[in-house]
Automatic annotation (TrEMBL):
SUPFAM superfamilies: Sigma2 domain of RNA polymerase sigma factors (SSF88946), Sigma3 and sigma4 domains of RNA polymerase sigma factors (SSF88659)
One matching Pfam family: Sigma70_r4_2
Organism: Ruegeria marisrubri
Protein name in the entry: RNA polymerase subunit sigma
Keyword field: Sigma factor, Transcription, Transcription regulation
Length: 188
């Protein structure tokens, strides 16, 4: 690249080219320091804040480091390229965090209001309460927050201070136990 062309490039593009061509860590630090607050603002406009935003920024900038060799200043500016990566990371997180309703808690059709269905509904509710009571306190807490409090895994992690992986493991194990406890209801 000639000196005249380089003089027209933004500092961010020059830093990204240095990361691409020389794996320059100092340039990457500059990129991170420049884009992290801007990405946080972009994510905040989409109602993504706190630890969830931090995770997306970390993931996006890690991808910038790993995919730097794909950057072509002739096709896009550094800003456009970094923002596109961050937007795609945000979309991936949204897709991953859509939580399915556990099978044991799905309602197939609206309940009838006759006496027999009310008794059945009460029995099912009692069975669910017993199944929830059979969970450990840690598992019950995350299930209640996730499915009754409608919180995302990241939000539960923020509330409890536990790592995201621990939250996901507890939810998975609790759902398995609930499915096992409620299996006789599904066969009726």
């Amino acid at each position: 690249m000639d000196t005249e062309a380089e003089s027209r490039l933004s500092d961010q593009t020059i830093w990204l080219i240095a990361v691409r061509d020389q794996r320059d860590r100092a340039s990457f630090v500059r990129l991170f320091e420049f884009y992290a607050p801007r990405l946080r603002s972009m994510l905040a406009r989409s109602n993504c804040t706190g630890a969830a935003a931090d995770d997306i920024i970390q993931d996006a900038m890690l991808k910038v480091w790993h995919k730097a060799e794909q950057f072509d200043p002739g096709r896009a500016t550094a800003s456009a390229w970094v923002y596109r990566i961050a937007r795609n990371c945000h979309i991936d997180v949204i897709r991953r965090t859509s939580r399915p309703i556990p099978e044991a808690l799905k309602v197939e059709e609206p309940p009838d209001h006759d006496a027999a269905s009310q008794i059945t509904l009460n029995q099912e509710a009692q069975k669910l309460r017993q199944a929830l009571d059979s969970l450990s306190a840690d598992q019950r807490e995350v299930i209640v927050q996730a499915y009754m409090g409608d919180l995302s895994h990241s939000e539960i992690s923020d509330n409890t201070g536990l790592p995201l992986g621990t939250i996901k493991s507890r939810i998975r194990l609790a759902l398995e136990k609930l499915r096992h406890e409620m299996k006789d209801l599904r066969s009726q």
